[in-house]
Predict the 3D structure of the following.
Amino acid sequence: MSRPGAAALLSFLIPGVGQLYNGDILRGVFWLIITPGFWIGTGGLLGWVCHFIAAATAHSRAEEKELRRLPAW
């Protein structure tokens, strides 16, 4: 069971960890590889963009999974 807030926070701190927390292994590995590349390749300018996008996607995926678990009335 993943919580959206926890997934977003984890992925904001270390992009990819929130996706791993959600069980999205390939997405997590993608962000773990891409983010350092953006930090280094752009001299730090686009690294923050990866942090925000990774956090937002981790949050939305956790919400989707949470909604699928709820019973449909």
Notes: The CA atoms of residues 2 and 22 lie 6 Å apart. The mean pLDDT is 89. The first helix runs from residue 4 to 13. The chain has one domain: 4-68.
